[in-house]
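Model the whole thing, not chain by chain.
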Amino acid sequence: MTVDWSWIGDHTDDLTTLTFSHLQAALSAVFFGLLISLPLAVVAHRIRPLRGVLLGLSNVLFTIPSIAVFVLLLPVSGLTRTTTVIGLTIYTLVVLLRNTVEGLDSVPAKTKEAAKAMGTRPLRALLTVELPLALPVIMAGVRIATVMSISLVSVATYIGDGGLGQLFTDGFQRNFPTPVIVGVVLTLLLALVADALLVAVQYVLTPWTRRRA
Amino acid sequence: MYELFKDLGDWLVSGEQWTGPDGIGHRLAEHLQYSLLATLVAAAIALPLGLLIGHTGKGAFLAINLASFGRALPTVGLVVLVFLASGLSMWPVYVALVALAVPSIVTNTYAGMTAVDPDVKDAARGQGMRWHQVLFQVELPLALPLIMTGLRLALIQVVATATIAAYVSFGGLGRYVFDGLAQRDLVQVLGGAVLVALVAVVLDLGLSGLQRVLFRHRPA
């Protein structure tokens, strides 16, 4: 299996477009995933009976094959980017919800009591004490969700989207390995770069964790 | 929406759907075979690796990076790539599924091993236990809950992803998804998806039941 380097040279514009489209789909999914899972996680953390229900529900969503999720969304949102993003968002929910709940659980009770004793109201305590302290665990979830989304975008190629995934169908249909290899390598690179950037973001956001490490 | 669910119900219970080489029974058996075999092979590779890394404390960097590498690897791309290299066989599907399952098992095994209290390990060594006794009689039992979590996660991912076998013209429940997709038959796609989800949930419940039996002797 050899790589046809001239094909790569001839298709740099296409590859750039596909890479950006790929990244946009994955990042939108993580963004919407966070938007949905943060409030849900707070609810699951505070109201114990709902915890099992929410986590169980997100686990069940995770078991549906991604191809099927995209197809099932077709009657709702058609052959569009929206379908891709909704499908991917569903997959990010499991990781984000679980990690955010675990992150909130990991905040020491004494810290919360201290905040309460100082007269900090619940919402303010959540925003300024609990969420920041839960950040390392939440960020671990964000990193996993981001890397997973970047790898999953390709599956949307079956509904005509899928960013770099289109290179896989192209290579498969023409029995031509080069686009497939390029697609796999670019997906891996995107994921690694995104992960490294998130590590840097976490480093900046949680200065108090540095001394321990 | 109601119509769709009614059609889905009819599709799932109709007798003819369950028999023959295209029947649900046969597809289910194929799907189970792909998923269980891939998970077993992955466990055979990943468990010793995770135990070794956890026990010696060496290669943690490798374990963590292997995990993110495995998550980043696009399964469709991997299947097509191995397919183009090896021709029409089940190889591509098994390679992709094993590659998908190994990282979850390695990282959870490793995480379970490192979570074991160092004092407990010291005490075991102080009592004159050899390294293999510490590993198998102390560390492994204590790490087992997290190891089981890793296996369950891997199995769920593998069952959901085994759908891809149908993309390279093999069987399994993915057949309904891809055939339904080609025939614009939403009921069939939905049926395939529901069956895959059911298999994953049932297997997960089975493993968690097994886990409960294994830990009966320990208070929660």
